[in-house]
């Protein structure tokens, strides 16, 4: 038979010739070039469920879960997964979410859909649903997925399976017990801290988002087992959420155990790298020395970067990461979460860099050429673009103002009478579900005891004399 151009000899691909092997080889080269290896003396875990990345708030909404896709692609392209334990966490279930949130609110999130939101419009306003917190397809799944990842990360820390646990899909710090707020529906941070409190007597929560971490502060308002420290832009009337002033330090009544355990660092527009890093150190050091936390949760909102769509600071990626590095050096069990950030390419760069901080590696600034969606990082295709020049905002933070902030933090800490011990009289006030369960069990035990007592007393010679 005559050979034609249609029929050709089959050439078996040689090792390394297929696209999969080529990609593996490129990643292996990045691992070698960046010196990536598993950390010595501690374990880092990475918790990510790709289903979260598919969610969509709407075409005009600034929250883009797709930023997680860009983040995870950078992590994998650099080969950082080789240095971590990688987990695909399950979604949080109903019972786990009502550990903090009210059951009627969770039931609402579980049942509401875009189709019936017009019919149920009057039922939406009590839960603060609307433009900022829209109803979209898969809303409940989205909430349970990112919350499940934070719970999984917290459990790995409490089980000593991980020393640093990362969940970039979490950090949604505005959600309240019975309402959504600021693009946040479920407060995964509160749920994760409640997990930590089963094993750790004192947890320090640090918030680097440009917006005040009001939801977490409110949840632990009346307990001394959690200290919250939030660095954020503050303008009571013009900037969301309008809370977190210098005098907002917890309950006014000093007899309340939560008094002076909510520390706020209210900043003005335009703060730069060096000032921010120094300020962070100046407020962190006395917090650690006085409170002596046994675990740390840090929220790494990327909207504090320069050039963010909703932010107003002039920070670069390395400056933001320096705060994570400083916290890591404490050597405490550490939960690292995402948060705000509305310029997706810069958020991805930030969280890739802070992942490298957690594993103790310095990354090459040029993004790997095989990074998926690398065109989104054009034209420079670098991990560290200059986000502070030209500065979008003038720096309105004077040296005196920053000194006043530090002095105020020191003053508040004077009222903290040493670190609380494990045997505390008070528990976090929002452990409602756990408290109710324990009370039910105690009541059942009491009823069972009374029944047994009455049974034994039948036929006895006198009241209280047990028959044998």
Could you explain how this protein is built, in words?
- It is a single chain.
- The protein is an alpha/beta fold and 468 residues long.
- It has 13 helices and 8 strands.
- An 8-stranded parallel sheet has the order 2-1-3-8-7-4-5-6, sandwiched between helices.
- α10 links the parallel β7 and β8 (334-337).
- α2 packs across α11 (344-359) and α9 packs parallel to α12.
- The longest helix is centred in the C-terminal third of the chain and has 26 residues, at 432-457.
- The chain is globular and about 70 Å long.
- Residues 422-435 and 451-468 have low confidence and may be disordered.
Mean pLDDT: 89
Class of secondary structure makeup: alpha/beta
Distance between the termini: 104 Å
Task: Specify the overall morphology.
Answer: globular
List SSEs in N-to-C order: HEHEHHHHEHEHEEHEHEHHH
Number of helices: 13
Regions with little confidence, pLDDT below 50 for 5+ residues: 422-435, 451-468
Rg from alpha-carbon coordinates: 26 Å
Beta-strand percentage? 5-15%
User: Helicity range of the residues?
Assistant: 25-40%
Across the major sheet, the strand order is 2-1-3-8-7-4-5-6
The number of E-state strands comes to 8
Biggest sheet layout: 8 strands, parallel
Q: Please, what is the oligomeric state?
A: single chain
Brief rundown of the structure:
This protein has 468 residues and is an alpha/beta fold.
């Amino acid at each position: 038979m005559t050979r034609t151009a249609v029929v050709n000899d089959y050439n078996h691909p040689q090792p390394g010739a297929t696209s999969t092997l080529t990609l593996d080889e490129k990643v292996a080269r990045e691992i070698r070039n960046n010196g990536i290896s598993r950390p010595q003396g501690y374990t880092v875990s990475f918790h990510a469920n790709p289903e979260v990345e598919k969610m969509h708030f709407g075409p005009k909404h600034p929250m883009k879960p797709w930023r997680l896709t860009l983040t995870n692609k950078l992590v994998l392209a650099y080969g950082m997964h080789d240095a971590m334990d990688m987990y695909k966490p399950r979604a949080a279930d109903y019972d786990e979410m009502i550990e903090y949130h009210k059951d009627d609110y969770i039931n609402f999130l579980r049942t509401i859909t875009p189709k019936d939101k017009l019919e149920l419009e009057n039922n939406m306003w009590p839960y603060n649903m609307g433009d900022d917190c829209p109803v979209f397809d898969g809303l409940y799944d989205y909430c349970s997925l990112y919350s499940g990842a934070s719970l999984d990360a917290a459990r790995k820390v409490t089980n000593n399976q991980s020393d640093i646990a990362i969940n970039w899909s979490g950090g949604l710090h505005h959600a309240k017990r019975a309402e959504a707020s600021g693009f946040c529906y479920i407060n995964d941070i509160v749920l994760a801290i409640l997990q930590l409190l089963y094993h750790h007597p004192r947890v320090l929560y640090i918030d680097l988002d440009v917006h005040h971490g009001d939801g977490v502060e409110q949840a632990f308002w009346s307990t001394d087992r959690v200290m919250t420290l939030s660095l954020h832009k503050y303008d009571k009337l013009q900037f969301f959420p309008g809370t977190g002033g210098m005098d907002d330090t917890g309950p006014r009544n000093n007899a309340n155990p939560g008094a002076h355990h909510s520390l706020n660092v209210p900043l003005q527009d335009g703060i730069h790298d060096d000032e921010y890093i120094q300020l962070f150190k100046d407020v962190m050091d006395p917090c650690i020395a006085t409170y002596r936390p046994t675990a740390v949760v840090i929220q790494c909102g990327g909207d504090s970067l320069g050039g963010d769509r909703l932010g107003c600071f002039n920070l670069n990626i390395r400056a933001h990461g320096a705060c994570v590095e400083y916290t890591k050096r404490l050597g405490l069990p550490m939960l690292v979460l995402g948060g705000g950030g509305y310029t997706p390419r810069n958020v991805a760069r930030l969280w890739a860099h802070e992942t490298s901080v957690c594993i103790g590696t310095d990354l090459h600034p040029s993004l790997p050429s095989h990074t998926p969606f690398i065109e989104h990082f054009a034209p420079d295709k670098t991990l560290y673009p200059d986000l502070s020049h030209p500065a979008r905002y003038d720096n309105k933070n004077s040296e005196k103002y920053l000194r006043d902030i530090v002095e105020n933090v020191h003053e508040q800490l004077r009222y903290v009478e040493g670190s609380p011990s494990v045997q505390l009289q008070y528990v976090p006030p929002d452990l409602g579900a756990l408290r109710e369960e324990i009370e039910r069990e105690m009541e059942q035990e009491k009823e069972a005891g009374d029944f047994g007592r009455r049974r034994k007393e039948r036929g006895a010679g006198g009241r209280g004399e047990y028959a044998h």
